[in-house]
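Q: I'm writing a short explainer about Ribulose-phosphate 3-epimerase for a general audience and would like to include a description of its predicted shape. Could you first generate the structure from this sequence?
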Amino acid sequence: MSILIAPSILAADFANLQKEVEMLNKSQADYIHVDIMDGVFVPNISFGIPVTEAIHKHAKKPLDVHLMIVNPDSYLEAFRNAGAEIISVHYEACSHLHRSIQAIHNLGAKAGVAINPHTAIDLLGEIIADIDLVCVMSVNPGFGGQKFIENTYSKVSKLKDLILKKGSSAKIEIDGGVNLDNAPKLIQAGADLLVAGSFVFNSDDPQATIASLKQF
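A: Of course. Here's the predicted structure. Afterward I'll give you a sentence or two in plain language.
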């Protein structure tokens, strides 16, 4: 199976959002990654439910919604209704993570858990068999265009070992600083899904850039 690609709409031209979504529809992207930031859990504010609904209205690719917010449980149903097919909550933001995962599944969505660069893989041992995806942050969350953290390769390898050990079917998603240089190493380490924002949308030909990431 070829690598899955989820361009992050956070790096798109918001003044031409419909056009950007339609471009992704025509591309080889597998998902559209939607970063939700509240200015509390992360030091930035992106957009919320109305913009997610607007993206979904034009999207022909499933929405992979990444909640970088405090108290995500209060918004799970709203984002599901807005079109999210995958909903990822942060390990660091959930005091009752298993309950959050159950709530996402009960809404009919796939459940993901995102982890910050400082969060150890071992902490997922009790939940890994219950989730569909782990979003490994390879930059500190909050802003696009950051430099990739090199320790991510070993972290992905550890996560892959944990998934195999626990008999989990969870996919490994990498979010932050992904490009053509590190993509092959991430895939070799065990990544299944790559999020790319600035690298795609700042390129001269975003569709060709997505295709180049799909080749690995």
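A: For your explainer, you could say: The longest strand covers residues 84-90.
Q: Perfect, that's easy to follow.
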